[in-house]
Amino acid sequence: MTLAELPLNKPAKINALPKDDIIAAQLIEQGFTLRSHVSLAHKAPFNGPMAFRLHNTKISIQRAVAEQIGVSF
């Protein structure tokens, strides 16, 4: 399952980052690290960005990037 498929407010754990090293490095700087707990806070309409709760804050990323991040429950 990917981060983009995560149901609203359901906690999950990140288990895979994008294969692109540049995108993965940017995500790590924002706190999207392996084994981090994350939940979906908001989905923008029309395939817009998605906001996630991560480390007691909300972080928004593009849906295309969220589709590259693997999660498990």
UniProtKB/TrEMBL annotation:
Residues 1-73 form the Ferrous iron transporter FeoA-like domain. Pfam families: FeoA (PF04023). This is Ferrous iron transport protein A. Transmembrane segments: none annotated. One of its GO terms (molecular function) is transition metal ion binding. Keywords: Iron.
